[in-house]
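Hi Y.,

Following your request, here is the sequence exactly as I used it, all 288 residues.
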Amino acid sequence: MTQTNTTSKPQSSKNKFIVLGVIIIAVIAGLIYWNQHKKAGSEEITLGISPPFAKPLQVAVDEAKQKGINVKLVEFSDWNTPNITLNHGDIDANYFQHQPFLSNATKETGFKLKPIATGVATHVGLYSKKYNSLDAVPENARVVIPNDPVNQGRALLLLQQAKLITLKNPENHLSNLQDITENPKHFNFIEVEGPQTARAVDDADLVFSYPLYLRLAKTIDPNKALLLDDNTNTRYAILFVVKDDYEQTHPKKAEQLKEFIKIYQTSDKVKQALNDDVGENLWFAGWK
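Below is the corresponding structure, written out as tokens. Let me know if you'd prefer a different format.
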């Protein structure tokens, strides 16, 4: 007569419950980890920038990471997309424009954007590969200037400083080509997007451009300007810009962004990167 083992089924059921419990615990642990990871990832600050600003900012990014602040740089090749993307909420902030440009952009678009802090200011200059002095630039020369209202005004002020043109209102930083009252050398003005002025040096007779963009394009040494602007005020300092309500809708990120900006403004390594990338005599601190 065969004896039946009456303890095998309960033992088997017990093992199944143990395995099921382990699986449930693992799933819960996984969900907790995923949720924490997702929350941590959501605290990453995305900063939209123009490529010439990347290297010194990356130094600040690396220093900030050591303090638990995660910043991701997103590069834009034009001067319109950074504000559009910021207004849509796809990035947290941008760093590419000065106050006159921001004021004009918000006026034209209705975007609710504001500066949260000030970065560096750079000098601008008149450059030429064909001529070694402003006096040598001939009549009917092809002169390249930016096509946006704000930077075109800045270019015309510099040409006036060089005594190459005269403006209707010598103090108007938003002057345009129609405001030129005297053009004794009969310059032919060519309007291009601001970043493209750096590449125009290869073809035009005289170009208004920016040291940062010239260094990036590698078309001419930024220190070899025929004339640099004599402006040392902070009107044209580059701004860290956010949406108007950013500090209310993202208070933690806003505080971290301010900490990142403080690193950018005070770090000796960032200062050295700016000296290397821009030129020691071509930039100054806009926040002082």
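The mean pLDDT is 89.

Thanks again,
Q.
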